[in-house]
Amino acid sequence: MKENEIKNQKDDNFLLYIPIKKHEEWEIRGNKVYLIFHHNKPVERFMRWLVKKPSVSDIELDKIGSKTWQLIDGNRTVHEIGQELLNAFGESCEPVYERLIMFLRYLNRKGWIYYKKSQ
């Protein structure tokens, strides 16, 4: 590898990215976060009518997922969120960064968050 290719890999550390919420509707019930979804697109309305589903649904996040969602504020990096999770849950959330990165990638694939590089 060339020297600047190695430098680019070091500069592109995922732990330095800042996750930002795109999904705006959520609430806290008890100690858990619930993501709220409205099904009002034409196809979704038809499917709701077909299978008798409600127009609003939610997804309950577990305690670590709920804490992670609350820590995503547009300022904290992935590394800082991991440190906060370690402070809050200790060894019960180990391996913290592997779990955190997997969860954040899931949220990103669903279109509920996106990333920006930290300065």
UniProtKB/TrEMBL annotation:
Matches recorded under Gene3D superfamilies: Coenzyme PQQ synthesis protein D (PqqD) (1.10.10.1150)
Superkingdom, taxonomy of origin: Bacteria
Alphabetical list of InterPro entries matching this protein: PQQD (IPR008792), PqqD_sf (IPR041881)
Name of this protein: Coenzyme PQQ synthesis protein
Organism: Fervidicella metallireducens AeB
